[in-house]
């Protein structure tokens, strides 16, 4: 009896010890933290930067294809802004397509404290040709200040200006969007330093009838105007540097996930708010370096569907569209993309506008790309080929956010030699003759400045 009790106690102690030992073991590594994880592969294709520069269209080719006159929403558009429009028009005619990536110069999925400032540059040696920015960075939602930067008195606008200017100096073209928080909530917050607190991000919060109240005459109109002042200040920083910006406000307005979207709102309020946005930036704040990009979400049943709530030719320069591959049948998606591109380009031609694929990418399993099991190693190349066939001069994939497993839309490197399973296919795309990244855009400012009609 005594032996039996002792033995039982010993077995119990051994079990407890084993459990404590298991508890003491480190947690299993996760691929988002572990560059040695087997989901990552050795890179076998290398980028050819010299070829990229050779393949870029020569200035003489661009001059021959570029328009001599433009009809922009801003009759006082800067020379650089008119040159950019002419350059993009020429690229479309020559069937080159610029690759773009949102937040390419200041957000990465991996190698956050090593490598370069960009997942694209880690793979190819160059930034994306179109670098996307969002006003969320101006409010600190997508841009953090270090302690040293705060101590030096730097603001988010100061930091974003530096990031944008450096990207431009590397050859990239800039585009800016606005993921605006719910302004009804903003209006209820205590004001700080005499201004509204625009921090935070509130997708899918459609409460408060914000679109109607933000339009001219509404009680939230001063709040919206204050938000535009923040955006105008940044655009004017770029203007002083001679940098034009593809400005994409109030995008995906036919969806049901933004307060300016079609769900429960009036089309007249949307067009009034868009027109006010252009008027205020252009005529009140003196912003003359913006090309205004209209960008609903595909698919579209008809041209009329695409142009639902269209604010008018006097307020738009670029006919864009956003379209994501939400299923596992890439060939079927590419057919739908082909249809949408043809429809948008037809509408752009009819209205004398420039077409663009303003957002495109894989959006599966509740997020973007998967860490493994992606079905098409050359997805980006295939999407770009659709754009090129329809003379669309640029496309942009969405951002890679730091080590968020379901929130990256482009491949990435995890070391100097290993990366995401789609890295080789992406570098193949970079090496294609008709793909353009920041290192292959050339000096488009050498084009003749077109005359504003």
UniProtKB/TrEMBL annotation:
Gene3D superfamilies: Glycosidases. InterPro entries: GH (IPR017853), GH26_dom (IPR022790), Glyco_hydro_26 (IPR000805). PANTHER family: GH26 DOMAIN-CONTAINING PROTEIN-RELATED, MANNAN ENDO-1,4-BETA-MANNOSIDASE E-RELATED. Residues 1-29 form the signal peptide. The active site is at 252 (proton donor), 359 (nucleophile). Belongs to the glycosyl hydrolase 26 family. This is GH26 domain-containing protein. Residues 79-439 form the GH26 domain. Keywords: Glycosidase, Hydrolase, Signal. It holds the Pfam family Glyco_hydro_26.
């Amino acid at each position: 009896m005594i032996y039996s009790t002792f033995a039982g106690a010993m077995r119990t102690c051994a079990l407890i010890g084993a459990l404590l030992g298991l508890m003491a073991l480190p947690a299993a590594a996760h691929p988002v933290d572990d560059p040695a994880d087997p989901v990552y592969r050795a890179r076998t294709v290398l980028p050819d930067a010299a070829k990229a520069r050779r393949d870029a269209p020569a200035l003489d080719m661009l001059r021959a294809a570029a328009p001599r006159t433009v009809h922009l929403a801003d009759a006082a558009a800067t020379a650089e802004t008119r040159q950019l429009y002419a350059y993009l028009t020429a690229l479309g005619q020559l069937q080159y397509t610029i690759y773009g990536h949102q937040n390419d110069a200041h957000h990465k999925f991996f190698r956050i404290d090593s490598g370069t400032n960009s997942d694209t540059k880690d793979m190819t040696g160059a930034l994306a040709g179109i670098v996307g920015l969002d006003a969320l960075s101006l409010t600190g939602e997508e841009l953090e200040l270090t302690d040293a930067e705060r101590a030096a008195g730097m603001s988010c606008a100061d930091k974003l200006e530096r990031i944008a200017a450096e990207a431009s100096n590397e050859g990239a073209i800039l585009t800016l969007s606005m993921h605006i928080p719910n302004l009804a909530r903003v209006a209820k917050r205590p004001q700080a330093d005499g201004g509204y607190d625009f921090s935070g991000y509130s997708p899918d919060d459609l409460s408060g009838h914000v679109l109607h109240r933000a339009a001219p005459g509404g009680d939230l109109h001063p709040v919206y105007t204050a938000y535009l002042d923040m955006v105008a200040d940044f655009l004017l920083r770029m203007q002083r540097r001679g940098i034009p910006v593809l400005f994409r406000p109030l995008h995906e307005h036919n969806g049901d996930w933004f307060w300016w979207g079609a769900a429960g709102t009036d089309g007249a309020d949307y067009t009034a708010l868009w027109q006010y946005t252009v008027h205020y930036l252009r005529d009140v704040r003196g912003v003359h370096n913006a090309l205004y990009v209209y960008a609903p979400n595909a698919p579209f049943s008809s041209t009329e569907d695409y142009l639902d709530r269209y604010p008018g030719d006097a307020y738009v320069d670029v006919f864009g569209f956003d379209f994501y591959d939400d299923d596992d049948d890439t060939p079927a998606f590419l057919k739908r993309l082909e249809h949408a591109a043809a429809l948008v380009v037809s509408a752009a031609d009819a209205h004398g506008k420039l077409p663009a694929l303003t957002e495109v990418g894989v959006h599966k399993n509740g997020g973007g790309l998967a860490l493994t099991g992606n079905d098409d190693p050359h997805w980006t190349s295939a999407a770009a080929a659709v754009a090129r066939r329809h003379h669309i001069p640029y496309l942009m994939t969405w951002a890679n956010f730091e080590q968020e497993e379901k929130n990256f839309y482009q491949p990435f490197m995890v070391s100097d030699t290993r990366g995401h399973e789609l890295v080789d296919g992406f570098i193949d795309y970079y090496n294609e003759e008709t793909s353009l990244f920041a290192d292959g855009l050339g000096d488009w400012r050498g084009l003749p400045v077109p005359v504003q009609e």
